[in-house]
Amino acid sequence: MSKHGKILVAMSGGIDSTVAAMMLHEEGYEVIGVTMKTWDYANSSATKKETGCCSLDSINDARAIAVSNGFHHFIVDIREEFGNYVIDNFIDEYMAGRTPNPCVLCNTHIKWESLLRRADALDCEHIATGHYAIIKQENERYFVSKGVDEQKDQTYVLWGLSQECLSRTKLPLGVFTKPEIRKMAFDWGYEELSKKAESFEICFIPDNDYRNFLRHNVEGIDKLAGGDFVDINNNIIGKHKGYPFYTIGQRKGLGQEFGQPMYVAEIDANANRVVLGEAKDILRNGMKVTKLNLQKYDTVTPNFEAAVQVRYNDRVGTMATLNMVDDALDIVFSANVRGIAPGQSAVIYEGDDVVGGGIIHSSLKF
After folding, report:
1. CB neighbours of residue 223 within 10 Å
2. Which class would CATH give 6-130+171-194?
């Protein structure tokens, strides 16, 4: 009989989930490993060898690690539900002129729910992953908080987790730095794994070329080439390669020179237009956020002040005042923010704690 009971650990075959499983095993849990197959690389249009958490090599690595440590291990095929939700949303958002966050959707609607279902079937009270974050509980509310390694913090992609998911989740890596995790892997005999490079690609786009993915998965997308680049005064200044291939705030890769640095300021999917402007033209001091999920509090009080992060690498965020309007949040920043992209996640922080988050509906000028 284990000291703490059974725990279902998401094992990708990488260093983080491996160390998480080993740590929990040493704490006295009966670890059951599960690896989720989300994408069929045989049908991928990627131009480089499959890598990342869901490749066949990674699945085999996870199974080998589990078996070598005496853990039960299962492979769960969630390709259909993953594709129907995450990939369809990814394509739909780009075709609507927005910029999606597939990892947020996958965590919120696919991976955690799938893990909890399997945990229930296997009589596991808790699940665990190798994310760098800390789960806290205050006033009968569960929420994620930034881990000690600021460079590895992953709270931005965990804002959508429900109270049920958070209450049953363990994140053992949150109190460690990445170098400490690498040393643990080395000390446990995983020398090669301890030196493994980081992978930042979207799992179903291992070559990190989303444009190539869209070309191979959206019928007729090439017909969008030749639409107008226009300036903020609606003057035609060039031709683009298709509006789904651009994102708000983009400067490089526009395909032509304009005599000065130009940035994507707006995408008009209906008219197949991409609006370009100078750096000042992509500044906004507000936005509307929908599809909210609150963690630390069950409501946002009027004129609530917090830091808001509008993209994953926006590590500090910008202080803002928040007000609920119907089922959405109106957010007014204390300073202009650059390149707010509809479709991206907006995550609200009180210190290191995640108050909640949502999807950026539109940027605003107040």
Report:
1. 10
2. alpha beta
